Amino acid sequence: MDRVSIIIPAFNKADLTVKAIESVLAQTYKNIECIVIDDGSTDATNILMQPFIRKKQIIYEWQENSGASSARNRGIRLSSGKYIGLLDCDDSYIYNKIELSIKYLKENNLKFVHTAAYVAGLINCDGMHSMSKLRIPGYLTTLPKIGNLLFRNYILNSTPIIHRECIARVGLFDTKLFIAADWDMWLRIEEHYKLGYLPRKLSMIGDKYSYEPISES
């Protein structure tokens, strides 16, 4: 069973980071390495990580606040898995997310897969939670089939599982970018590899308000 390293960049969301970690530890796929990079949190993140550290359930490192891309890169450098999974600290995995993703990659001879997800209320530019429902089923049904990633980032950040070979070939996240850093990474990978899509809701995006499932049809 190949090892999968899950990278969680954490910043000032202590309770949600715990839930993210618990969703990784509860996976049906058991050869998992969970790496938490604390990007300069000033809340109780460090304190709440201690039980996981004592039980050797996670690898935890703190760094001066440098942004999510820097934290992801540090986690990738520390990782030992054949596959890399990305999980934001306010998101979580469905219990069989890794098992089904790895199965899909192997059955289809692919090195990158992303999935559908449950998405909580969106956050507007003022940081307030919007409870309006997400109406983008086309993002995850038609666009992957027509290869239109250049025009719209339809890959939700906490859904990909990526073979280490991809990152070794295209490089780490660009720390000069902010919102578009993940999109930039997917585009670089797409230059060399087919991006697989598994139409199952296997991640939960957002901080646990009422979820609006993205269509699997």
What keywords describe this structure?
217 residues, alpha/beta, Spore Coat Polysaccharide Biosynthesis Protein SpsA, Chain A, nine-stranded mixed sheet, two-stranded antiparallel sheet, 11 strands, globular, disordered C terminus
Could you explain the architecture of this structure?
The structure is a single chain. This protein has 217 residues and is of the alpha/beta class. It has a single domain, classed as Alpha-Beta Complex (Spore Coat Polysaccharide Biosynthesis Protein SpsA, Chain A). The chain is built from 7 helices and 11 strands. The chain has helices at residues 14-25, 45-54, 68-78, 97-107, 143-146, 164-170, 181-190, and strands at residues 4-10, 32-38, 59-62, 83-86, 92-93, 112-119, 122-123, 129-130, 161-163, 196-205, 212-213. The strands form 2 sheets. Strands 1, 2, 3, 4, 5, 6, 9, 10 and 11 form a 9-stranded mixed sheet that branches. A two-stranded antiparallel ribbon has the order 7-8. The two termini are 31 Å apart.
* Biggest sheet statistics: 9 strands, mixed
Number of domains: 1
> What is the CATH architecture descriptor?
Alpha-Beta Complex
Q: What is the C-level CATH assignment?
A: Alpha Beta
Low-pLDDT segments, ≥5 res: 122-146, 209-217
Total helix count? 7
CATH topology: Spore Coat Polysaccharide Biosynthesis Protein SpsA, Chain A
Order of helices and strands: EHEHEHEEHEEEHEHHEE
Distance between the termini: 31 Å
